[in-house]
Amino acid sequence: MKVNYAGTVPISTLDWTGKAAITIFFRGCPLRCPYCQNHPYLERSSLVELDFVKEEIKKSKPFVSTVVFSGGEPLMQEAVIPLAEFAKSLGLLVGIHTNGCYPERVNELVERELVDKLFIDIKAPLDDPELYGKVAGWKKYKGVSSVFKKTPEEIIAAVAKTIESADASGMELELRTTVIRGLIGSEEDIASIVTWISKNVKNREVTYVLQQGIPEHSLQENLRKIRVLEREELLELGEIAKGFLGKVRIRTKEEGEEIV
After folding, report:
1. How far apart are CA 63 and CA 85, in angstroms?
2. Is the pLDDT at 7 greater than 80, yes or no?
3. For the segment 178-220, what is each residue's pLDDT rounded down to a tens digit?
4. What angle do CA 40, 41, 45 make, to 5 degrees?
5. 229, 213 in Cβ contact below 8 A?
6. CA 79 vs CA 16, 59, 159, 193, 246: distances in Å
7. What pLDDT was estimated at residue 26?
8. Is the backbone peptide bond immediately before 170 cis, with ω within 30 degrees of 0?
9. Per-residue confidence (pLDDT) for residue 66, from 0 to 100
10. What is the structure's pLDDT at 142?
11. Quick one: 7 exposed, middle or buried, by C-beta within 10 A (0-12, 13-18, 19+)?
12. Whose CA, among 7, 15, 135, 186, lies 20 to 30 Å from 72?
């Protein structure tokens, strides 16, 4: 089996708060979020053997307690299943960063107890397909991806199903929204997202994170000169979220991760 591989961070303390992880980046993603910072990973194949990635995990094993699969979108690839099996066989915890578009693969991982934490993007309010499509790059890039041609409504349904599966399993769960001035992250946007979470996620230990998008690295060139949301602005949005949820954090370039 081949892996469409983007690279490895052998030891990371950023990808799973409180744990040392090896982070494996996969190429490919069905979405084209205009603010995406990992856009070099979205297309182009760089295939390696499954055993190559296993060796990368083995080399980091003495120094980490977790493996995180990121991307791109790791759940696009069937290889994530045997790699999660391998990591678990080494006694490592498994975390996955996902856009939520592949609930069937999440179900398989959950049922086989191959994932310990899911980090799921909620890109926009789940009751606003037009905005969700805009933030996911659906309209501009519609038809570009030959592997994923779902409508914004279908994307939202997949994200909701992914969250439901993770929630029902009782696993550790982080939901997160990347905020970009003028695109996503108004007070109304955040209030709508956290209202949905509070009504639909039963796990009261769920963590919601507001991430400071860095426009200068965006896929879409016309975003690159937009002024970044300041830490104080994220804290204000975090306070709105805190009115609905027990565990809220912000992530900024200035201060890293902070509890609201």
Report:
1. 19
2. yes
3. 999 999 999 999 999 999 999 999 998 999 999 999 988 898 8
4. 110
5. yes
6. 21, 19, 21, 32, 35
7. 97
8. no
9. 98
10. 52
11. middle
12. 186
Q: Residue 215 region, left (φ>0) first, then alpha (ψ -120 to 50), else beta?
A: alpha
Residue reference for tokens 């199903």: 161
pTM as predicted: 0.94
Q: How confident is the model at residue 148 (pLDDT cuts 50, 70, 90)?
A: low
Summarised one tens digit per residue, pLDDT across range 16-61 is: 999 999 999 999 998 989 999 888 888 788 999 999 999 999 999 9
Q: 240: closest CA among 178, 189, 174? A: 189
Locate 103 and state its tokens.
């609930």
| One-letter identity of residue 3 | V
Mean pLDDT throughout 115-138? Answer: 95
What count of Cα atoms within 13 Å lies in the side-chain half-sphere of residue 33?
30
Q: Which residues contact 186 (CB under 8 A, 6 or more apart)?
A: none
Answer yes or no: is pLDDT of 144 > 50: no
Tell me the two tokens of residue 255: 């201060």
